[in-house]
UniProtKB/TrEMBL annotation:
Gene3D superfamilies: P-loop containing nucleotide triphosphate hydrolases. It comes from Nonomuraea insulae. GO terms for molecular function: ATP binding. Residues 2-235 form the ABC transporter domain. This is ABC transporter ATP-binding protein.
Amino acid sequence: MLEISSLNKVYESPGRRVEAIGSITFGVGAGELVCVVGPSGCGKTTLLRCVAGLLPASGGEVRVDDVPVTGPPPRMAVVFQEYGRSLFPWMTVRQNVELPLKEKRLPADRRRELVAESLGAVGLADVADAHPWQLSGGMQQRVAIARAVAYEPQVLLMDEPFAAVDAQTRADLEDLILRLWRDLGVTTLFVTHDIDEAVYLGQRVVVLSSSPTTILEDLKIDLPPERDQLTTRSLPRFGELRGHVYRQIQRARGER
Ligand SMILES: Nc1ncnc2c1ncn2[C@@H]1O[C@H](COP(=O)(O)OP(=O)(O)OP(=O)(O)O)[C@@H](O)[C@H]1O
């Protein structure tokens, strides 16, 4: 569903050249959930922006469902870290979730249905008429997730979506993502700097090196498919996998 081939990204400005991504190649199969993890500044956001068609690649290409990405693909949704900046404060929760559906030119009935379903799925049906600033950080991020889900994307990209919320909320949101992913079967690429989160959520974890970034490892997460915050995280295999990824990232940082 998603193919990233020899992707290279260089930021160039007068007197400054930063090769953020050296060369990255990997794919995400239809319905798969793949996490990308790497040391700070290794180009995770750059990678995601190139995949989302928000930044032009300097070399290589990204394909979604075999179509080269040259701008934001029509059936892709992105959830960013900064929920505070991604929701419109003057619109209600309902209006925020509905906006992309209007842009998609869906009829009013269908829009109402999708907004109600997605707000229900994230447990926010009762705050549909509130404004984002009246909600907690975790609730605002759930609105952003509902907005992405209502859009019925083929591919869902998430850029450190839970970095700014507290640990308990984060655990709840991780389980929400797993539930939605299972229910909807949406192809998901999830970028995080949190190794535990990557191992807990992913069917695979792609480990990145420091900039100029390459892939250190594309690791299959052979944990039972049903994940649970208590059981999964206390499995010996979970500890082994997180230790393995941790060592890879430490090595990558050391080589900087
Ligand atoms: N607009 C830009 N212009 C120039 N350089 C940039 C720009 N955006 C990012 N970079 C550089 O590209 C590299 C990768 O940055 P990026 O934000 O993609 O990394 P990241 O892995 O998401 O970082 P973090 O983990 O800290 O969020 C860094 O060296 C950064 O300074």
